[in-house]
Amino acid sequence: MKTDGIKIIDYKAGNAPSVMHALERLGRKAEFARHPADLDHATHIILPGVGSAKATMASLREMGLLSSLEEAVINRNVFFLGICVGMQILFDYSEEEDTDCLGWLPGRVVRFDAGQVRVPQMGWNQVHFVAPTSYPIKDDYFYFVNSYHAVPDNQANLWGQADYCGLFTAAVRQDNIYGTQFHAEKSGEAGLALLNSILQL
Amino acid sequence: MLTKRLIACFDIINGRVTKAVRFQDNIDVAPAEELAVSMYEAEIDELIFYDVTASAEKRPIDIETVKKVARAVFIPFTVGGGIKDLSSMYEALKAGAEKISVDSMAVRNPQLITDGAKAFGSQCVVLSTQVKRIETMPSGYEVYIDGARLATGMDAIEWIRRGQELGAGEICLNSIDNDGTLSGYDIALMKLAESAVSVPLIASGGAGAPVHLKTLFTETQTQAAIISSMLYSPRMEHNYSVSRLKEYLAENGIAVRPV
C-alpha cells in the first residue's frame, strides 16, 4: 500500500472529506493540503469541487496555492485530478460569474440551457469514455451535480461524454492532468473503481 | 441520459432509523449506519437523513451519525434537521454530507437559503417543504413546518418559487396528506411544482407500490422519488428491493441506473 504522496486540496467550500473517505475505502492513505508547502512532495494531487468556479479560484488564491499547484502539475508533471468545479477551472474561462480560470487546458465552461433541461443537472448519467486508456475503465453511470460544463478547444482532451439534452464533456485528460465533471467519490462502486484505476498511474 | 433517482429517506432518532406515519408514531427500524450500508449495497441512488427531533429539541444535528454514514457509503447524501445557520451547514458538509436540506428554519429565516447557496453553492442547498392540501390557498397547497404541525399561511408553490430565487438548487416536496398512506405520490402537486420552478424536484410521501413510481415518472418531470416504507418499513406487508423496483421501472421504459 502506498502510504504517502496523495494530497487532497481542502478548501472550505470543497467536499474534501468525501474524497478522503473514498480513498480510505480503496486502502489509500491521503492527506489534506491546505498550504503551499503541502504540495512539495505530492505524487498525486486531487482538487475536489463543489460550489462556483469563482469561489474555487478565490480559495486557491487566498490559500496561496496557485503557484505551488502550477509548479507541481505543470513543471514537475505530478498527477492531477480535478473533480466537478475542480475540472472546470482547468480551462481558460468559465461563464459562471465571468471567471478567469487556470488555463491549463484550452477551452471554456458554459451553462446548460435552462430552457431545455433542469439546471443544475443532478443525478446519475451514463458516461461513454471516448479515448483509449492503458488502464481498465468502462462506460458506466456516474453522479453529476452541475449547472455548467466544459467545452474543450482541443478534442484530444476529451476523455468521456454524457448526454443531457445533447452531449457534454464528462471527463477530460491531458498527459498527467485528469478531470471528471462527475463526482467519482460519490458514484458508488463505479466511481471507486475509476479512482482506483487512475490513482495507480 | 440522466436517470431517475430513487432516494431512501431515513428519519433518525438517536442514531437509529425510525418510521413514522404522518409525522407521528415513530417506530424503530435499524441503526442508521447499518441500514445506510445495506441500501448502498442494494444500489440505491441517494440517501437523505433527517434528524427529526433536532429542531424541536433545539440541538445541533447528530454529526457523529453523519460521519459514520459518510465513511461507509459512496453515494450522495443529504442531511437535514437542526440546520439553523451557516456554521451548522458547514459542520454537516465537513462531516461528509453532500447537500443540506433546510425546511422549517428556512421558512423562519429565508436568508439561510441564500447564505448557504453563496457559501457552498446552490447544489448544496435542498429546500424541503411539507405541504398540505388547503383549498383556500392560491395553489391549493399550504406550507407546514415543525414536523408538519404548524400551518404557516404560506402558499406552497409560491414558497418553492421563492426558494429557487433565493438559491435552492433542488426542491423536495413532501405531501402531508399522502405521507404514510401508501396510496401514491401527489401527482397534481408535482405538476404544479414543475411548471413553477426549473431546478430538480424530489417527490416525497405516499409511495406504497412500484406503480406509484411509474406514475410519478411518466406523468410528471419529477427527477427523484423518496421511498422509505416500501424499502424497509416493518409496517409494510412486504418490502421491495431496490433492484426489483429498478427492474420494474426499466421494463416500463423509465431510465434508471441499472443494478
Task: Kindly summarize this structure in a few lines.
The complex is a heterodimer of chains A (201) and B (259). Chain A is an alpha/beta fold and 201 residues long.
Key phrases:
heterodimer; A: alpha/beta; 9-stranded mixed β-sheet; 4-stranded mixed β-sheet; 5 helices; 13 strands; 22% helix; 32% strand; globular; B: 259 residues; alpha/beta; TIM Barrel; 10 helices
- Which percent range describes the beta-strand content of chain B? 25-35%
Q: Write down the overall geometry of chain A.
A: globular
- Following the backbone from N to C, one meets helices and strands of chain A in this order, namely EHEEHHEHEEEEEEEEEH
What would CATH call the class of chain B? Alpha Beta
Sheet/helix structural class of chain A: alpha/beta
Distance between the termini of chain B: 16 Å
Count of domains of chain A: 1
Strand order of the largest sheet of chain A: 2-1-3-4-13-12-11-8-9
Going by helix content, strand content and strand pairing, the class of chain B is: alpha/beta
How far apart the termini of chain A lie comes to 14 Å
**Biggest β-sheet of chain B, characterized?**
8 strands, parallel, barrel
Calculate Rg of chain B over CA atoms: 17 Å
Q: Output the strand order for the largest sheet of chain B.
A: 1-4-5-6-7-10-11-12
How many β strands of chain B by DSSP? 12
Report on the structure:
The complex is a heterodimer of chains A (201) and B (259). In chain A, the strands form two sheets. Chain A has a nine-stranded mixed beta sheet. Chain A has five helices and 13 strands. Chain A starts with 5 loop residues before the first strand and ends with a helix. Chain A has 201 residues and is of the alpha/beta class. Chain A has one domain: Rossmann fold, CATH 3.40.50. By secondary structure, chain B is α/β, with parallel strands linked by helices. Chain B has one domain: TIM Barrel, CATH 3.20.20. In chain B, strands 1-4-5-6-7-10-11-12 form an eight-stranded parallel barrel, surrounded by six helices. In chain B, helix 7 (187-196) links the parallel strand 10 (170-175) and strand 11. Chain B is globular, with a radius of gyration of 17 Å. Chain A binds chain B through residues 12-13, 15, 17-18, 21-22, 24-25, 50-52, 55, 114, 118-126, 141, 143-147, 163-164, 183, 185-189, 191-192, and chain B through 1-5, 40, 43, 45, 70-71, 74-77, 90, 93-96, 98, 119-124, 169-170, 198-201, 221, 223-224, 257-258.
